[in-house]
Structures are given as C-alpha cells and as structure tokens.
Amino acid sequence: xxxxxxxxxxxxGGDNAPSEMIKGALEAVQADGRVQVYxxxxxxxxxxxxxxxEYPADRVxxxxxxxxxxxxxxxxxxxxxxxxxxxxKGLGLxxxxxxxxxxxxxxxxxxxxxxxxxxxxxxxxxxxxLAPLIPTEKGCSLLIDCGANVDARPSHLVQFxxxxxxxxxxxxxxxxxxxxxxxxGAEEEKGNALVKETFPLLKECRDINFIGSxxxxxxxxxxxxxxxxxxxxxxxxxxxxxxxxxTLIKKVKAGMMTxxxxxxxxxxxKPALKQTLKAFDLEEYGxxxxxxxxxxxxxxxxxxxxVEIKNTILQCVTFKExxxxxxxxxxxxxxxANAKExxxxxxxxxx
Length: 351
Hints:
alpha/beta; 5-stranded mixed beta sheet; 15% strand; single chain
C-alpha cells in the first residue's frame, strides 16, 4: 500500500485565499490517493469554502488557526507574536512530525524565518536556500537561491549546488544535472569577489557536474539545470523572468488583434500557442522549496491560483518518496568528512 503524504496548507495565505488554496488542495487530493491535506486557517472561513464541494472527507482535515500574518508585518515579530497564525501552526505540524510538508502562498519573510526557527536546519546545512523551478527551452532549471540569503558566503553556494543537484536528479529526474554559477562572463577570472572565491571550490566538487559560469542570457535556453547564485541576484533574475514573460504574452496577444488577417491567423495558431505558453507558465512547476530543513517547507507565489497549489502539493509527494532530506543530509556529511580527511592529509604532507 502506498504511503500517505500529509501536507499542511496555509489556507489563509496569498492574494486568493482561502478559495484558491482550498480548491487546489482538494484537486491534489483527488489527483493522488496518497495525499492527505491539513487546511490550516480560520475555521469558519475554511468550512464555508468546503461546503458544497465533493471531496474524500477522510483525507481532508481542518486545523483551526485564528490569526493571519500579513505580508507587511516584520517576519520575526510576526512569528513570535502570532502563535495561532496559519503559518506558525502549519510549520508546527511539520516540526511535530504530524505533517510531512507545509505549503504557503503567504508572507515570504514569515515562511523563511519560521521554517528556519520552527522546523530547523538539517544537520550540517549552513543556510537553507529558496529554490524555484523556472521554465527554459529544454524544460526547466532550478534557480538556487532566489530569496533566502542575500549575503551568502562561498561555502553556502557550494552547499546550494549540492542540494540543487540532489533535487533535480531525484525530484525532476534529470540525470547528472549540469551546475552553473551566475556570472557576467564565461571566463573563470570574471565576476565579483563571491563568484571568484566560489568558482574554484565548485571545480573541486567531485559529487556535482559543474560546467562553469552561466550568463543570464543563457538561462532561458536551458544552459544549466542548476543555477547557483546568492539570493539578491537570484531574486532579480526571477522577477525579471516573470516580468518579461508577462510582457511578451501581452504583446503577442495585442499583435494578433491588429487586423482581420492577424485575427484569422490567431485562430489558426491558438491551440499550438496555448500549449507553448503553458510550458512557460511558472504555475505549472509548483512552488519553491526551502531546501536544507529538517522538514519540507514550500513557498508559492502570493498570487497563486489552484493549479499552482495542486502542483506544489503533488511535488511534495515526490520529495518525500525520494527522501530528499535524507539525501541532502548524507551529501553534506560526506562532503564534510572528505574535507576533514583532505585537511589531515595536507597537514601530514607539510609535516
């Protein structure tokens, strides 16, 4: 019998809560018999959304939470002060082992802080990165980090590369994923101090397929499967990606309506164009996991609709089945042991 995957969903987080959060959760339950969801939020609001909907009652639970953390609230104060919020209670379910994962479209800061403070970092992990999948010409790539660590050190980026490789190979099925570090040129001597210090460290990693630097213009072409950077750069890449994508779609649609001929052409290409654009829709890839924690925490867009919530929950199933947390912990431990042995060897050689 397939193992149940219990996912706590922040029913009150995001611009479209609670309706889209609950709709997406129910769609995930109906799509996969292994999924059990815990809808965390204001009881009356959640039960109102559930009324009239058909769903397997034994796989959908309501967890009351009277408070909501708003986006503008200082994250640390909110986590400390709102103990009965949907975010704190949802993370608490993961910490207690009652749920395998927590999914939220709410305050990014609160989810990041709460994930580290309440769920806690896995052994050996220095900084947990936020890692969304982004669409490319060849499928998708993992952008790591995009929002958790704006002042990362070289050792952090090396761990990001390892964690990203494990995720892409085991969750996305990419064999020997190509790892690239974001840079302003292909040459090894280029870049800021962080990139210059990190590059040789990544070259020495035998457990990852490091291909060198990747320029921003090569990301949409799928030049690397794992794109390593600190969060400031990653967040700029992600937001520009989203903005350019939305603008191009608007321009294409506007261009198709300029004349009778273009309108007829639009009708002919509409099915193929719709399928193509769907592949570049970020919602199709689910949320961004905060990798390196003791439990799975996933942040989705604040504007998430049901399809993104559904896909994120289904993503959690693969995450648990592949034991990503165990694999990350083992990889970090092995790397630390190897570094220790090399240090001893170097010391003996000098002696």
